[in-house]
Amino acid sequence: MTSHDPLLQPFRLKHLTLRNRVVSTSHEPAYAEDGMPKDRYRLYHREKAVGGVGLTMIGGSAVVSPDSPPAFGNLLLYRDDIVPWLQRLADDVHEAGAAVMCQVTHLGRRTSNFTGDWLPLVYPSPLREPAHRSFPKVAETWDLDRIVADYAAAAQRCRAAGLDGIELQSYGHLFDAFHSPATNRREDELGGSLEARTAFPRRVVQAVRAAVGPDFVVGLRMSMDEDSADGLGRAEALVALEQYVGDGIDFLSVIRGTIETDATLARVIPSMGTPSAPFLDFTGEVRRAVRVPVMHASRISDVATARYAVREGLVDLVGMTRPQMADPHLVAKVAAGEEDRIRPCVGANYCLDAIYQSGDAKCVHNAATGREQTLLHIQPLAARRRRAVVVGAGPAGLEAARVLGERGHEVVLMEAADHPGGQVRLASASARRRDLIGIVDWRVSEAKHHGVDLRYGTWADAATVLAEEPDVVVVATGGLPNPTFGGEGEHLVLDTWDVMSGAVHPQGRVLVYDDHGAEPALDAAELLAVRGAEVELVTPERMLAPDVGSMNSPAYLRAFAEHDVTLTLARRLVGVRRDGGGLVARLGSDYTDLVVERRVDHVVVEHGTLPNDELYHELVPLSSNGGAVDHPALLAVRPQPVAGAHGSFQLFRIGDAVTSRNIHAAVYDALRLCSAV
Ligand SMILES: Cc1cc2nc3c(=O)[nH]c(=O)nc-3n(C[C@H](O)[C@H](O)[C@H](O)COP(=O)(O)O)c2cc1C
Ligand code: SF4
């Protein structure tokens, strides 16, 4: 039956017919190995193609020259040996019915002088980029000549590999730095008027077009309004674009804003707690003013908004990039009438922050993304149906129940509280981060879909579990706050759960001590400050919350600035004592013996959790495996060996019931264990 869904209509882009309107826009997940898109990279994009995407754009910021060294795992398009890898990827994506293009760029100053070949970075003017902190040299004529040639050679490699096209990157990199008055301060023939400022980018477009010939798609992803006082405004951007189109550009991917600081990048790739599709109307206005097809991505996270964007003619192609990291089968689910089963992108931006925190992109609640070599996005039925009991309905337990249910097992999930969610529910008490609850809601809904017996308000002891006569028991009982700091007065402090759960409402002067380094202390400090407390956030680290990355920190820092939260680094809480009606917090330092004191009304301590593992230890002697996990089997996603002479069930422990970690670790524990049961 022909679908009338605007999202599912084919689109003709030059000679190319895309099967639908949904795109995964260029993004670098840092899955390259040696700068090459090897198997991991290929399978990541192949999954989206299998899942129905119309066009997948690879190589976010794939680099054309050695003096544009990788800043976040970028592909090295200046090497000839990339061609066979690109070719394999293109073949796989084509076989699954999607088109594939690569983003091509020279990063300019948006990388480091101290990586790759250690060549000095080049830029139109000697301006430091705040985010990557490199000092670039002023590009000379010979630099620009070779870079133009490098662009052309890179484009040719993409064409030789059988890609359907490329996209030139024009926001925050070298190309746009020339046409933007904010970054081009040159006084030679390449600076000043718009005509002079577009001279270098035009050379790039012309050289690329000459290199690939007329029948290869070449697009431009460009900031059509830098939204800053001295930046490129919309009127000039439209004039520049018109020139680039005349030089051979076939489509426009619209960006609004700039990316030179954490704060501006976070606006371009907005996270949870911000409005949906903030630049969609702007994109519609741009589309009406240009003569090439337009695509756009920016927090168009739900299918209804994407459909609206296409139906109302605001875009020709709609980017749903993080949404397809969360669920690469998004389009297939739309086509199958199963929109309600799409795993939602909750806007946690863990995908981006994980690149810097742990080396590559990871979706906070889809552990299979980027791990397609070992993990499946859709679970096949198990050969033998088993009876499983999962205890705990936090992210680990819910994921375990969902996966076991999808595998066709008979699953009972027991949760002591009268609602699911665990620590995710606590975190989502922050108004700004309430979308996190989507992680819980989706799993509950999927678990129900797969027939899981969800029992809330059920306290599970060994007898309750054994009464179910399980073959497999998964303990996901989470952790309990551990507000220790190793000094006198621990009984006088609160923990962040007290604050986030609403159990207490500390007012007055509150010292929040963060010896964890992740979100919980920041959430508590923000909540307290918003409610009017006078907050000082103290950490023993030399920076604020080292585990909260550059995409998530801007919103906290804005809230702290707006509510005048005092930030104190490199101070360790060494003691708390009562003093009159209040408390005195003693702050030492790892670097000196000097101790300072703070008079406050409350001290809130965040130091992670300790496992809530009583049930697990009760069950260990009764189980067949003593709770042991066979690591080689776990890592290869093979069934755990059924060992031991006694015990009728296998016992496993996952998530924070093992040790204090994060949401991604919890769902990853569950997925790789349970998809092999
Ligand atoms: C992990 C990650 C890496 C990204 N890298 C790039 C990049 O190299 N070049 C680029 O133009 N955009 C990059 N983006 C931005 C995306 O293409 C897209 O514009 C952004 O995610 C907003 O769209 P969405 O809300 O549909 O995800 C990246 C996004 C993510 C999540
Ligand atoms: S980490 Fe968050 S923002 Fe990124 S894809 Fe997953 S749900 Fe979306």
How would you portray this structure in words?
The chain is built from 23 helices and 27 strands. With 677 residues, it is of the alpha/beta class. Strands 3-4-5-8-9-10-11-12 form an 8-stranded parallel β-barrel, surrounded by 6 helices. It has a 5-stranded parallel β-sheet with strand order 15-14-13-16-27. A 5-stranded parallel β-sheet has the order 18-25-19-20-21. The site of iron/sulfur cluster has 13 residues, from α11 and α13.
Describe the structure in brief:
The chain has 23 helices and 27 strands.
Question: Topology, please?
Answer:
Layout: E1 11-13, E2 16-18, E3 22-24, H1 39-50, E4 55-63, H2 82-95, E5 99-105, E6 122-123, E7 137-138, H3 141-160, E8 165-170, H4 174-179, H5 194-197, H6 199-212, E9 217-223, H7 234-247, E10 251-255, H8 262-268, H9 280-289, E11 294-296, H10 303-311, E12 317-319, H11 321-326, H12 330-335, H13 350-358, E13 387-391, H14 395-406, E14 410-414, H15 422-427, H16 437-449, E15 453-455, H17 462-466, E16 472-475, E17 479-481, E18 494-495, H18 496-501, E19 509-514, H19 519-530, E20 534-538, H20 553-562, E21 566-568, E22 572-579, E23 582-588, E24 596-600, E25 602-606, E26 609-611, H21 614-619, H22 631-635, E27 650-653, H23 663-674
Parallel strand pairs: 3-4, 3-12, 4-5, 5-8, 6-7, 8-9, 9-10, 10-11, 11-12, 13-14, 13-16, 14-15, 16-27, 18-25, 19-20, 19-25, 20-21
Antiparallel strand pairs: 1-2, 17-26, 22-23, 23-24
Helix pairs in contact: 1-2, 3-6, 14-16, 14-23
The structure holds flavin mononucleotide and iron/sulfur cluster.
Residues 322, 325-326, 345-351, 363-365 line the site of iron/sulfur cluster (SF4).
